[in-house]
Model the fold of this input.
Amino acid sequence: MFIKKQPSWALPRSCVTPERIFLNRRKFMSGAVAGAAGLAMPGLLSAAALPVQGESLSYVPAPGLSTSEEKTPYEDVIRYNNFYEFGTGKDDPAKYANEMSVDPWSIAVEGECDRPGTYALEDILKPHDYEERIYRLRCVEAWSMVIPWVGVSLADVLKRFEPNSRAKYVYFETLHDPEQMRAQRSLFSTIDWPYQEGLRMDEAMNELAFLAVGLYGKTIPKQNGAPIRLVIPWKYGFKSIKSIVKIRFQEERPKTTWEMIAPREYGFYANVNPEVDHPRWSQKRERRLPSGLLSPNWIETEKFNGYGDQVAHLYKGMDLQKFY
Ligand code: MTE
Done:
C-alpha cells in the first residue's frame, strides 16, 4: 500500500414491454463464466444478449421516481465526466474510455450471500425489465445534471443473490485493468486502484438505488460507466461507481476510494447536504449544467439532493455533521 498524499486535483477543480429487446448478440459467452444455479439456467448461459454499445433499449418510464426538471443535454452528459481511470480532466473519459472493452462482461458476487459466483452480465439482467429514471446527479464538486437513466432496481438484483443476515453492507468494485484504463498505468496516479464503493444494506435496498445500463434510451456510453454502474441520486456522485466487476456482501463497513484518499473531506455516507460544507468549499449551491462563465446557472442545493421523502428515514437519529 503506498502512502497517499492529498492530490492536487482532489475533486476540487472546481467538482414495457414485459419483454426486453434482445439485441444482436455478437459473441456467445464461453463456459468460462459460470452462473450459479437459479440465476443462470444451465444451458441458457450463453443465450441472452448483452446490449451493444450505442443501441436503443426498451424500457418503461418510472414517473413516480423521476423528476420533471429539464434534462441536461445528451452532449453534456457524455462529454463532461469524472472517470479517473481514464484521467482527471473532464474530457478525458470521452476521449479515452473507448480503450475499454465491455463485452463480454461478468460480475463476481462474493461474501455473505447464498448465491455467490461469477455471473455473465446478461444473466444478471435477463429477468428484469428496464425502467427509465430521470434523476438529479449532484457531484461533490458542486456541479449537477439531470440524467434520464435506463436500468434496473439495485434491490431487485441484489435480492437474487440471497444476502444472509450477516450482510450489513454491500461493496462494489470497478474494473482494474491498466492495459485498458490508461490512468491505472500512470506513475502519477494517487488512487489505489481499483475504485471501490459501498452502501449500507438498507441504503442499497432503497427504491431509489439503481443500476444503470443506459441513458437517453440507449446503452450507457463507456465514459459514463458502461456496461453497468450504480446511480445513488441522494448521495454525491462519487458513490455512483462505474463499470462494476465485483459485488461483495459483508458484515463490516467497506473502505471506499475517496474516504481512503481524504477521510476528512469525503465520508462513507456522502449524502448530499447543503448544511455540511466540504472543508474547502461550500455545498450550499451547485452549478446546474450546462453552465458557462456568463451564465453559471447556480441553484440552491437540497438536502439529500431533494430525495428526503424517500431516504431521510434511513438516517434518523444520526448526526449528519459527523457521518458526512
Ligand atoms: N466510478 C469510477 N470507477 N471512477 C470514477 O472516477 N467518478 C465518480 C462517479 N463514479 C468515478 C466513478 C464521480 S466523482 C462522479 S461525479 C460520477 O461518477 C460522474 O458520473 P458521470 O461522469 O456519468 O457524470
Observations:
- Confidence is low (pLDDT under 50) at residues 1-38, 40-48.
